[in-house]
Amino acid sequence: MATISPRLALLAGALALGVSSGANADATASMLANTCAGCHGTLGHSAGPASPIIAGINRVVFVDMMQGYKSGDIYSTIMGRIAKGYTDEEFEQMAEFFNTQEFKPAQQDYDKALVDQGAKLHDKYCENCHAEGGIPLRDPDTGEDAEDFYLLAGQWTPYLAYSMEDFRADRREIPKKMKSKLDDLLEKDGDAGLAAVFAFYASQQ
Asked: Where is heme c 1 annotated to bind (predicted)?
């Protein structure tokens, strides 16, 4: 049986990797993103309600979240351990990949009777930071992100609810402005108000 010397094997490996830098960058971004598919679905289209849809996610938000998980600044059950395996450059590559995927809202049940109230509460408490009902904010001419945004409209309700629980239980730092608005909402409308807001987001399918 013919054998291949270690030197030839290394040369073959080098040639296999010697593709153009652009093609290699694309392949790397895709490969990195594929490791997320188990929880977040193919191309970031999560089919499981506890894992958020990340297709179309804002680049800055994605990188900030991953860095927060990695450092431990953002509470998580598993993402902190996963994030430790990646560099900031790899976070940037994944952010670019997922940002360019089409956002597809979750197909989920919701209480239609709560939607109108939820829309009013969103306008009152959330719209200043989560504009246009919480949808992805794109420049209509370029398709690029118009500003930093979080995916709220069409996001899985259980994920939003779990995230809110983390904020309320002080497991995750909440921005001062958001805390003030949330406290006002809960004081006046209670948990039923939150449920209405979630129903409004879920209705945007």
From this structure: 36, 39-40, 79
Domain boundary residue, one of 50, 79, 104:
104
Asked whether residue 36 is marked as a ligand-binding residue, the answer is: yes
Question: Which of 104, 133, 162 is the last residue before a domain boundary?
Answer: 104
Q: Are residues 115 and 151 in the same domain?
A: yes
Q: Are residues 110 and 149 in the same domain?
A: yes
pTM value is: 0.82
Count of C-beta atoms within a 10 Å radius of residue 87: 9
Extended beta strands in the chain, E state: none
Residue 40 burial (CB < 10 Å; 0-12/13-18/19+)?
A: buried
CA distance 167 to 103: 25
Q: CATH no. for residue 183?
A: 1.10.760.10
Name the domain count of the chain.
2
31 labelled ligand-binding: no
1 marked as part of a ligand binding site = no
Q: What is the extent of the structural domain holding 83? A: 28-104
Was 79 annotated as part of a binding site? yes
What are the φ and ψ backbone dihedral angles of 83, each rounded to 5 degrees?
A: -65, -30
State yes or no: 178 annotated in a binding site: yes
164 is in an annotated binding site: no
pLDDT in tens, 180-195: 999 999 999 999 999 9
